[in-house]
Model the fold of this input.
Amino acid sequence: MIELYKFGPMGKVCDPSPFCVKVEAYLKMAGLAYDTHSGNKYLRRAPKGKLPFIRDGDDVIADSMYIIRHLEDKHNGVLDGHLTPEQKAVAHSFIKMIDENLYWTMVYSRWAMDDNWMILKEAFFGSLPFPLKLFVPNMIRKNLLKTLQGQGIARHSAAEVTEIGDGDLAALSDYLGDKQYFFGDRPSSLDATAFGILSQMLLLDTFSAPVFDKARGYKNLVDFTHRVQDKYFGN
Ligand SMILES: N[C@@H](CCC(=O)N[C@@H](CS)C(=O)NCC(=O)O)C(=O)O
Done:
């Protein structure tokens, strides 16, 4: 049995991390049996210090890309095997766009925008014991804001961050068009990845941000997200 280590559900979404949602959606779409283990405590056991990671027999694999590569290899292209080389190239590019660009607009919205930070602080760190809860959340936020500067997203104005995210959402919406999944009527790892980020922007009413409002404006992305949630997560 595959063991998936993740943070745990938030609202109706199976995880507040789009990468954890990506892997769980992949497992469901591929029809692979798995168990989950939820909690921040698993960060300490994570081979790369981030979640998700999986244990599959004797193999421990970290990072959503390597997890999916491992499962595709082991299960004979269970989800992506039907894609042509051209579709695989498109999927690769969109996945990198989501993970390396669109993702950061979400992180910026949650951690750098003061209103969302107040909500996040309570949601993620509310259960920390006193006196840790007085300084740990602020310390983590300070590091996160440094990461956002280093990555570059926080060097833009808030309006530009929205524009950057919207560019990616528009590309996803145009490519999805009126198809059920990004490559037709069968899901692929691109669908799992797109669902990972879109679930954060569209299914959680915990946070509000201009880029999430932009996402709400793409009807086909909204329908896609609800369709995947209903079919694979049943709520
Ligand atoms: N490249 C990794 C990214 C995973 C990642 O960034 N996970 C974040 C949550 S969204 C995390 O574990 N952060 C905790 C930390 O950095 O301490 C993947 O694709 O799995």
